Automatic annotation (TrEMBL):
Its cofactor is FAD. PROSITE patterns: FAD_PCMH. Gene3D superfamilies: 3.30.465.10, 3.40.462.20. PANTHER family: BINDING OXIDOREDUCTASE, PUTATIVE (AFU_ORTHOLOGUE AFUA_1G17690)-RELATED, FAD-BINDING PCMH-TYPE DOMAIN-CONTAINING PROTEIN. Belongs to the oxygen-dependent FAD-linked oxidoreductase family. The keyword Transport does not apply. InterPro entries: BBE, FAD-bd_PCMH, FAD-bd_PCMH-like_sf, FAD-bd_PCMH_sub2, FAD-linked_Oxidoreductase, Oxid_FAD_bind_N. This is FAD-linked oxidase. Keywords: FAD, Flavoprotein, Oxidoreductase. It comes from the Bacteria.
Amino acid sequence: MVSADGAVLINLRRINDVSIDAGTSSAVVGGGSQWQDVVDAAAEVGLAPLAGSSPNVGVVGYTLGGGVSPTLGRAHGFAADWVQWVEIVTPDGQLRRVDRDNEPELFWAVRGGKGNFGVVTRMRFQMVPTPPLFGGGLYFAAEHVGPVLAAFQDVVAHAPDGLSISFAFLRLPDAPFVPEFLRGRFTLHVRVAYLGSAAEGEKLIAPLRAAAPPMVDTVAEMPFAAIAGIHADPVDPLPAYERGTFLRELPTAAIEALVNAAGPETGTPLVMVEVRHLGGALARPPSTPSAVLRRDASFQLFVAAVGDPGMDEAFRPEIQSVLDAMRPWSAEGSQINFLTAYDTNPEGVRAAYGPDVFDRLARIKHRYDQGNMFRINHNIAPAN
Ligand SMILES: Cc1cc2nc3c(=O)[nH]c(=O)nc-3n(C[C@H](O)[C@H](O)[C@H](O)COP(=O)(O)OP(=O)(O)OC[C@H]3O[C@@H](n4cnc5c(N)ncnc54)[C@H](O)[C@@H]3O)c2cc1C
């Protein structure tokens, strides 16, 4: 892990303006803006951004790391693909506006290279007309894991690009901030977002509802502005230990391996083991190429533990054991937004991007940040 001792933290919280232009279906946002503010402002004029699962993740940090939207990603690709320009203060103190014509190499690098090239103070991106949305969560008790995950495979096998689906093994603490039905027990949470009518959506997810009676079922027609309720991510800071990987496929043997490693019968302390279905437009090349190049994985696995600072030694082997169990189905690389402190070492970052993209990023880094001023991150050291 990279130590931030002696570093300067630049807080952009107050550069959080959001301006929507309905005529061009675009948004200009400040470097510290958060997703729910954009989602709400866009909804007022019938538009939807490629937002993530959490309402208070930063728009710019998310987008520079690729940005995988669990509602619109499979239909429209990565959020980084929809960026039109960024204003960035580079390490030489210059404020530059970069796009596909002005400093195209930097524009390529910053969309995927994240915080390595400077501070993005403002960014403009395109949005889509607000789609009809049939979404929510299905929560199942531990004894239904087998049939529900078999149904998950079935739904994925027939999923149109408008359907995004994921599941998570949740082991949430018996604490007042956790909804009562989730407290202190194992729960299987299936998340659904379908960009279409309720009638079509009902048909698509019918195998899940038929597999077992959910404890709670919130899947219904919903306003796009309420998307944060689909994953119901925590919104307060947590001391989390996390790691993820891509999966090429999710056959029955992989599901069995995951259940054996982290399912209800195990004593794992992990609070969440999540599998998101990717593919669709996320797997297609963008019109303006960027450093987001790992596009062929079908699934993304993400594993998280929460505990006091210093619990690294206890959690590290637990997290690793789940990744090891899934190794036969793992794909190379990682989603940059899900690259965590465990992977911030040079080998981890290089492996996440792959050598070609990494080397190109390193050459661009050398041009703009020869002294590696921006290095408390998933660092791309400047090429010599
Ligand atoms: C609950 C939760 C749900 C998530 N869901 C998704 C999801 O659905 N899809 C997805 O793709 N990701 C998701 N993520 C990952 C998320 O996109 C990354 O954690 C991202 O880094 C968050 O950015 P931030 O600005 O909120 O965080 P920060 O900690 O503020 O920023 C993280 C890093 O991003 C860079 N950065 C941020 N802002 C700027 C800027 N203005 N200029 C230059 N660099 C900047 C910096 O290197 C900074 O250290 C989720 C994260 C959480 C915590």
